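W.,

You were right to be curious about this one. When I first looked at the sequence I had no strong expectations either way, so I just let the prediction run and decided to look at it fresh. Below is the sequence, 423 residues in total, followed by the output.
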Amino acid sequence: MAFLAFLRNGFYKKTTNIMSTDIHAFSSGPRGVIPPALRRFMFMESSSGLVMIFCTLLALIAANSAMSHWYKELVNIPISFGLGDMRATEPLKDWVKDILMVFFFLMIGLELKREVKEGFLAKRDQILLPLIAAAGGMAAPAIIFLGFNAAHPETLHGWAIPAATDIAFALAILSIFGKRLPPAAKVFLLAVAIFDDLGAILIIALFYNAGLTALPLLLALAGMGVLYLLNRAHVSTLAPYMLVGIFLWACFYQAGIHTTMAGVLVGFAVPMRDAENPHQSPVARALYFLLPWVSFFVLPIFAFTAAGVNIQHIGMAEILAPLPLGVALGLFIGKQIGVFGTSFLLIKTRLIAMPEQTSWGDLYAVSILAGIGFTMSLFISLLAYEDEHLQEMAKLGVLFGSALAILWGVVVMRFLRLRHQPQ
């Protein structure tokens, strides 16, 4: 609590308050300069990425040391919620996925709403390159994964695992090694990651839900109708949206739809501006509250409970098996082919202009970092497979692919920095 108090009373006083009209800074500002509100968001995300790296390493150490038994018992400790026949019992790691990660997806929904309404995604000429690059960056990894796993039907369901980018990890690496990259390149990476998140949300909704149950699904549709009415009535108080979100969570849980969709729908429903006071933004107000909690509590806990893969007894044959190899190369090679290759074709054919003050090397560097697929990739791996061994192999691929993207990205950014140094 003291740490969060520091964030609110110390850090926030030194940064831009996104609840004000400064939200327009996302789509304005001088050429070549990242606006204050966007800079604040990127700083929080990169800081979160550093904390997540620490929690990931902690989980790997715990899972591969004398503490492995304690770690496994901790993440699998059964926890119950509910009353009577409505009581549900799941291990801690599943509740983290089903409850805490709802707040992460709520933040994604709110962030998408803000960027599309008033941010840099509100301008059509600015979104085409990252939008098409993100589409390529999701298709190429999936194709590579399917190529390695076509003869293994038990693993095919994980085709979407290497399709997403972890913006927190990517910005953390950028904050350390990519300080000399132009602002436009960093914004391009952020935009690609946002479209990746949107694509991942659609993939989860369409392909990673259990068998649907009719009555809870009908109740969920009624809840979505209430969200629509709240939005149309310009209700700017956040409490009604949160209450409907809780109702939707329960309906989705019973219906077989993944509960994180409740967070996304609530995020989309919250109005961008207060009808009575246009200078106030309910979306920005919700983000202001959620950002530190999600960045420094939800995501680190998810990283700790999801990343603990025991690699002590894993041989080269298992590392080179189709599942981990398809995931790892999908992230490392597929993202580069999809993001950079698509951008190269669009710019060379003059369909879209190169981002301002950005070189091919800068664009290639951030395309490599798009292959860091930690959070969403781990999340999809848990949805794709029920078998714990397959989950572990998929996680192994995510960790290796992301590590390769980080290492090669650092090498390329180091080369760019040396090349630009005065002789």
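Here's what jumped out at me. The longest helix spans residues 388-420. And, maybe more interesting for your project: DSSP finds 16 helices and two strands in the chain.

Coffee later to discuss?

I.
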